[in-house]
DNA sequence: AACATCAAGAATATCGACAAAGGATGACAT
DNA sequence: ATGTCATCCTTTGTCGATATTCTTGATGTT
């Protein structure tokens, strides 16, 4: 049997830390004690520093010389700018995708849209959220991939990583009602329709609006939790 | 007197390494021997790994597990995609800047455009290139900053960092003739003109074209040097 | 004779532990 | 109550052991 390509501990530590920061296990602004991390992940200091350095480059962690590492703070200002930037980038990518996408691209959009729309058999709420979120991501990724530019997709991904902390806040606080789900469903259907009609300008505007809808809700959640 | 905030060795190593990679001191694809780096920068392994991790996150260095680090390879495919992505992003940012920029923004554009246009008193060729390049960057940064979005500007910066290796190739190979300089000057003047007239669509198109002009030249240089 | 395969040795990356330097917190004195 | 000092904790840099990988040379096969 072929061994998994045994990635080194630094990479693993990076993924675990990133996951825990995004899921809110470590609070924004919290100090990341080496001793705590060491016992939590059962690792040496070397791999941890390596992982933290990468997260600093991604702006998920901030480093202060001689004073260690802290989780990057969250703020309403960052929320607003981040979502705005992401909406603009997604709009740009969509415009290019409509310009450049081929038949396989269209087929992929229809396929992922279909599986996303089929999320109705609600079991537990948690499981619903997980499934819905996964398929939602796949749907949007399918749309974006039509732009056919690795670097633009990479930019998109990096913004998405930064957004995920805020999105997570939203997903955890929001119970997706049947009504809300239906509203999203129709938004997505309209989006698919406009995209397949290759109406770039209108599609980009719809995408931007679609992506900005969570902002007021997240703002409210943050103010309630005093993260302001 | 205030002390310089004595940054740790990892940060310093990061800057030195980045500079040497961008300037081509380390060839694309070249293996980065720890022993070589150790003696070159007179540092231990810890800080070096820290710096390399950050460069991996920026995609300027690639890490292969258990097989060390290599300088990220350069290719014609990456050149094309990178410049395309950058041109699209700059176009987007410019459109937003025209929408959102205020009087101070306009003033800053005029100021930096003026200092850039004044680069005529040619001394040594190297010095000319340095001065021109610095002012050129300042000019474009002034334009972009009008979008008023830290995250978009950060995306722009990260793409620029990746582009710099290719740009450096261009700047080193190209002797800026008086004719070429004059051509650039008129392009910039036209750009400023359209921006101040707030013609977003036309300005974005001009900016994209302006940024794509070096691509054929760089392509030729790379083919000649066999980096293809 | 040339090429592929394999094995042994050397080099290198990777990890954990140890020592030094710099801040932060708390107590004590004024 | 405030300023100063001492102690503790944390970060930071280097060193040494271990496991993995690359290279080189020899052997067998075509």
From TrEMBL, chains A, B:
Keyword GTP-binding: no
Gene Ontology MF terms in the entry: DNA binding; DNA-binding transcription factor activity
InterPro entries per record: GntR_C, TF_FadR/GntR_C, Tscrpt_reg_HTH_GntR, WH-like_DNA-bd_sf, WH_DNA-bd_sf
Ranges of residues in domain HTH gntR-type: 7-74
UniProtKB keywords: DNA-binding, Transcription, Transcription regulation
Protein name according to UniProt: GntR family transcriptional regulator, carbon starvation induced regulator
